[in-house]
Amino acid sequence: MADTKTYDIxxxxxxxxxxxxxxxxxxxxxxxxxxxxxxxxxxxxxxADRYLRDGVILTDxxxxxxxxxxAILLGxxxxxxVKAGVLERGLLLKMRFALDHYINLxxxxxxxxxxxxxxxxxxxxxxxxxxxxEGLYVGAGxxxxxxxxxxxxxxxSINSAAGVERTVRYAFDLAMKRRKHxxxxxxxxxxxxxxxxxxxxxxxxxxxxxEVTHDYLHIDATTIxxxxxxxxxxxxxxxxxxxxxxxxEAGAVVGGVGYSASGNINASGKYPSMFEPIHGSAPDIAGKxxxxxxxxxxxxxxxxxxxxxxxxxxxxERAVEADIxxxxxxxxxxHQVGQDILARLA
Amino acid sequence: MADTKTYDIxxxxxxxxxxxxxxxxxxxxxxxxxxxxxxxxxxxxxxADRYLRDGVILTDxxxxxxxxxxAILLGxxxxxxVKAGVLERGLLLKMRFALDHYINLxxxxxxxxxxxxxxxxxxxxxxxxxxxxEGLYVGAGxxxxxxxxxxxxxxxSINSAAGVERTVRYAFDLAMKRRKHxxxxxxxxxxxxxxxxxxxxxxxxxxxxxEVTHDYLHIDATTIxxxxxxxxxxxxxxxxxxxxxxxxEAGAVVGGVGYSASGNINASGKYPSMFEPIHGSAPDIAGKxxxxxxxxxxxxxxxxxxxxxxxxxxxxERAVEADIxxxxxxxxxxHQVGQDILARLA
Lengths: 346, 346
Ligand SMILES: CC(C)[C@H](C(=O)O)[C@@H](O)C(=O)O
Ligand SMILES: CC(C)[C@H](C(=O)O)[C@@H](O)C(=O)O
Hints:
The first copy, chain A, is an alpha/beta fold and 346 residues long. The first copy, chain A, has 11 helices and 12 strands. Chain A folds into 2 domains: 1-103 and 261-346, Isopropylmalate Dehydrogenase (3-Layer(aba) Sandwich), CATH 3.40.718; 116-254, 3-Layer(aba) Sandwich (Isopropylmalate Dehydrogenase), CATH 3.40.718.10. In chain A, a hairpin with a 7-residue loop joins strand 11 and strand 12 (273-277). The longest helix of chain A has 18 residues, at 310-327. One 3-isopropylmalic acid (IPM) sits between chains B (78, 88, 92-93, 244, 278) and A (189-190, 220). Chains A, B: InterPro entries: ICDH/IPMDH, IsoPropMal-DH-like_dom, LeuB_actb.
């Protein structure tokens, strides 16, 4: 028998359907690693319920506890009872920033058996490398005369050469393992300061990767190509906000964000990385047991890859692909999808 | 015979295919207004050729001449020989800002005869009201240690209550003439300063329009719905950057930006408004005489509406719709499309 390694995993089901899909993902990763790895899960009660109960969003003490884990499995954050931004910024973004999750990795793949809203989707298989700790997400805006007719509201995008360069390197490394093409997405004809810096660093790093080709697209043109020619993309490299936008659009063209996993990765290994579906907490269907746990399950596979448990991760990916191909268009409960995928791992 | 009124029109064909499509638009608006209006055109030689020839992008004197007109017909700006941003910011955005074009109006309609890339597009007929003079487009960014590994690049989005409110009012007025629904698009869970202000002002103005319903969507979710359920939208109200992004995506789902017109409108009437296709100068097909002039022709119809020449504008719209229905899928030269539409006006 192989040695079993033990990993500490922080589990944050969060809000809405997050609570329903996360247990399915845990069950699947448990099964896929039988005999290979063991997980000590610590459940963290964070999100809207906790906040409304005792006012806690995320304390430094909780953050320290989370940091002691090898990885984090997150469900979804956001609840209509809480003002927009409070939990997103206080919990989700706070973790991404405090744990230096500078790579937000989001694969988009059209699986066999999934119906794309596009008439002729062709093959879609690209990955978005979204910078995760800079840009407009730093929270550097403010208001003068708030709430009055004289209000001035600002939002400041802050970007550093070091922050961009580590992201660019990650994208080129990833491209080397794929079809060797990187597309930088920005809006450098308007955002000339940040845009020029991204382009300069891409051009510089690219010299070290002679096998990787690269091109550039404005964000607006990118939203067109994702609909008209998604097959052209291999690795898309972009900033925090543009990455947020195009990964949702990409999720839609591959048949719905219900299939799209993501990793918030601290590639330096200093802090635990966090894996979550790209979809939100879906308050409209929460509590009904009908949310699709596939994206959460695929997030657990990304988590396993990150821990170096590639065989187990690939087992999950194959099981998910087979499940989608057979049952993709069938309405099933959250738990049923989990069970069907589990059965394929047996 | 009806009185003919005379209007002064500034024509800026600009770059690439802009030069090929603009004459077709002029010919069509000329024909559609026969006996009703007369136009004195002043051609402005602006864009890459001019800039590369004598370094002029847009002087204050030229801007003053442009201001003396009743409206502006623009082709497209942007050329690969000129660094990205130079012409866009120095010419196109400079005009939008100097002429206080605070409404960037962009209808998206799926015409009969046009093939959408969506498998089941349904009926698509919405208008994006994009704020045109604020946000990340103000050019308020900068760099420290530019060009070095220590570079910090910022981009600042500046938004004023007055700037937002006039845009919000325009959107609600427009909704009253349409299906009476406004969707505010922003990212208020992250950009809380600007996002809160937009939402506050929408809620305030909405009280004066009891017949208009309104809702809110994050920009990322919006890119999903444009692909999965574009029929849900009537009037989309959003800021400068988000409007740039979703109108390109919307252009794609209605069969290509080749059909999408836009107005840069100074609704106060102080300065001339400017009408242009939402597509760019398309250097890849420039000079071949194959660019589709439909968006430019539809822009001339918007221009006529703006001057109050609604009958003539509607004649063009009907001719374009009939032309697309009959010939939408046929490859035709730029001039042929112009001629076919002209023939329908006879
Ligand atoms: C919830 C929100 C703050 C978040 C983001 O904007 O990053 C989400 O949309 C995502 O993409 O993970
Ligand atoms: C050319 C560019 C500056 C412009 C914009 O970003 O507004 C264009 O994309 C548009 O939408 O008109």
